[in-house]
Amino acid sequence: MTTAASYARFGAREAHGVSPAYERLALAVSADDELLALIEALPPAKRQPNLLFGVVRLLGGPVEDPAAFRAYTLANWPAIAAEMRTRSTQTNEPGRCAVLLPVLAALPQPLALLEVGASAGLCLYPDRYAYRYGEHLLGTGEPVLDCVAAGAPLPNRRPEVVWQAGLNLNPLDVTDPADLAWLDALIWPEHAHRRTRLRAAAAVAAADPPLLVRGDVVDDLPALAARAPAGATLVVFHTSVLYLVPSPRRAAFAEVVRGLPGHWIANEDQEVLRYDALPEPPAEAHHNVLALDGKPLAWTRGHGQAITWFA
Question: Among 14, 32, 180, 257, which one has the highest count of C-beta atoms within 10 angstroms of its own C-beta?
Answer without folding.
Answer: 257
